[in-house]
Design goal:
The protein is mostly helical. The protein is built from 4 helices and no strands. About 55% of the residues lie in helices and about 0% in strands. Helix 1 runs antiparallel to helix 3, helix 1 packs across helix 4 and helix 3 crosses helix 4. The longest helix has about 50 residues. It is flat, with a radius of gyration of 31 Å.
């Protein structure tokens, strides 16, 4: 099955879902869903999530519902077409129809996960930057060049710090120091 035919079958799946939604709305409100006004859904009442004047909004009209239906067909068809183009040997009409049925829900779920994926990708990229900076600092430290203001070898002044110029090499473990999670300052 080629991707275009799969997209058409997926759009048919999206149309089926749209039809089911309209049928449910007609059964619930006993009129076409685009004629349902907000005050007929629930009695007008003040709620914290409703701004003043929203409780008496006009009905959205048939144009808004048709536009939403066309968008659903587009989403269903495009997602099914992409899957069929990616996996042409596995796509048959039943699979394409089922993908079209669930396309809108799948896109909604993925869009809720995108901020989390971007956040994790940013952390991974930042981790790479930090590691690169640490490696550069260690390379400078091994060459005997100062790595920070007022420090001769990047170490804090105090007992137990050896400088490369004094002939006492510093041990290199390759593991950065980690703060004590209990806040106690380390083991005694």
């Amino acid at each position: 099955m080629d991707w275009f035919l799969a997209a058409v079958v997926g759009a048919a799946g999206g149309a089926s879902m749209e039809a089911v939604d309209i049928i449910k709305a007609i059964k619930w409100h006993r009129q076409m869903p685009w004629n349902v006004q907000s005050d007929t859904i629930d009695p007008p009442q003040r709620r914290a999530d409703v701004r003043p004047g929203e409780e008496c909004l006009p009905a959205p009209g048939w144009k808004a519902y048709w536009f939403a239906g066309v968008l659903r067909l587009f989403v269903s068809g495009s997602l099914t077409g992409v899957v069929a183009a990616s996996y042409p040997q596995s796509t048959n009409p039943l699979v394409a129809f089922l993908i079209g049925l669930g396309a809108l829900s799948a896109v909604q779920q993925v869009t809720t996960l995108v901020p989390l994926m971007v956040k994790n990708a940013g952390r991974a990229a930042l981790g790479g930057v930090v590691e690169e900076a640490q490696q550069q600092a260690q390379a400078l430290q091994q060459n005997g060049q100062p790595t920070g203001p007022g420090q001769s070898n990047g170490a804090l002044a105090g007992p137990g710090t050896a400088s490369p110029s004094s002939g006492n090499p510093q041990p290199h473990t390759g593991v950065a120091a980690q703060p004590d999670p209990t806040g106690g300052g380390g083991a005694a």
